[in-house]
Amino acid sequence: GSFTRCTRLALRERGRERRSMADLAVVVERLAAIFTECDRDGNGTVNKRELIRACRSNPEIAEFWGLPSMVQQENGRDAMEHYFQEIDDDVDQQITWTEFLSYHLEYASETQ
């Protein structure tokens, strides 16, 4: 009857939640790997110099950030500045893990 139908719907929804939590875990893991790759000195923040170096040494990082691998004055600098301003909530010229994660999770939720 209706109890069985409600139970099935609840179980189906719980399965969706588990899948979305698993998907979220994969996304967070990937974001953590990217952040760690960019945080060259391991201090928990990414500054512009570190970002440029990471893009130069790893084309996948450059692609993730939507930047050319050779960020220079005329090539990708404006895009990098814009991206930094979008993420750097406290405007300290560094991106923390928290700023990076919250930006990308918010961006991901807006694009779904």
How would you portray this structure in words?
The chain has 112 residues and is mainly alpha-helical. It has helices at 2-38, 48-57, 59-65, 77-87, 97-111, and strands spanning 45-47, 94-96. A two-stranded antiparallel sheet has the order 1-2. The longest helix has 37 residues, at 2-38. It is elongated and about 65 Å long. The mean pLDDT is 83.
Describe the structure concisely for a colleague.
The chain has 112 residues and is mainly alpha-helical. It is built from five helices and two strands; from the N terminus they run αβαααβα. α1 crosses α5 and α2 (48-57) packs across α3.
Shape: elongated
Major sheet: arrangement of strands: 1-2
Strand content: 5-15%
What series of H and E elements makes up the topology? HEHHHEH
Kindly report how far apart the N and C termini lie.
34 Å
Structural class: mainly alpha
